[in-house]
Amino acid sequence: MLLDLRQIIEVPGKSVPFRCELNTDGLEFESVKEYKTPPTAEGRVFNEAGILTLEGTLTAEMTCVCDRCGKLFDSSKVMNLHAFISDRESEDPEVFVLDGDKLDLDETLSTLFVLDMETKFLCSEDCKGLCSRCGADLNLGPCACGKEVDPRLAVLQQLLDSDQ
Fold first, then answer.
1. What's the whole-number mean pLDDT along residues 87-109?
2. Which of the two residues, 145 and 81, has the higher pLDDT score?
3. Sorting pLDDT into bands at 50, 70 and 90, what band is 91?
4. % of the chain residues with pLDDT over 70
5. Are 72 and 57 in contact (CB under 8 A)?
6. In 3-state terms, what secondary structure has residue 111?
7. Rg of the chain's alpha carbons, rounded to an integer?
8. What does 114-161 look like in DSSP terms, one character per residue?
9. Are the C-beta atoms of 40 and 21 separated by less than 8 Å?
10. How far is CA 110 from CA 11, 39, 45, 70, 150, in A?
11. Is 64 helix (H, G, I), strand (E, B) or coil?
12. What three-state secondary structure class fits 6?
C-alpha cells in the first residue's frame, strides 16, 4: 500500500492516518507456524518542524512453536511503531525513503516488524525444555535419566559409588 504524503510534506503540523493489514508471505519465521489474523497496523505519519515521522501500533496474533519444548502455543505481539521518513537515502534502519511523495507502507511496516521480532519463542518464561538424553518434557516433571555427570569427573563419581 502506498501512502500519499504530498499533502503534509511541506506543511508542518499536518498528519496522514493509516490502517492496513500486512501480507504474511514475507514474514516467515521458523518458530511462527501461522498467523491467526494478518498483522494489522494503524497510526499516522506526521510532519513536525519539517521532519516526517511514522508512529502507531502493530498487532499480530500467531501460533508458535516453543524453542525449548516444541509445544504449540498462541502468542500476541503488540509493538509500538516509530520511524523517520526522508526523501534521501540513509543507512539508519529506522529511516525510510519516500518514493516521490509516497511511502511504501507495506515495506516499511514489514521491516519494522522483522526488526522487532523475538529471537527466541518460549511457551512460558520458565519453560524447562526437553531432556537432552531421553527427550522427556521437563515441564511435566523430572525424567528418569538422573543427573548427568561431567565426563571429566566420571572417575570421581565411580569412587563415590564404590564407597557406598
1. 84
2. 81
3. confident
4. 98
5. no
6. helix
7. 25
8. HHHS-SS--SSTT---B-TTT--BTTS---TT-PPPPGGGHHHHHHHH
9. yes
10. 27, 9, 16, 26, 46
11. strand
12. helix
DSSP classification of residue 162: H
Locus of grid cell 528418569: 144
Whether pLDDT at 163 is above 80 = no
User: What count of residues does the chain have?
Assistant: 164
Indicate yes or no: pTM above 0.85. Answer: no
Distance CA 71, CA 75 (A): 12
How is residue 88 annotated by DSSP? S
47: cell is 510532519
The pLDDT score that the predictor gives to residue 21 is 93
* Distance in angstroms (rounded) separating the CA atoms of residues 11 and 41: 24
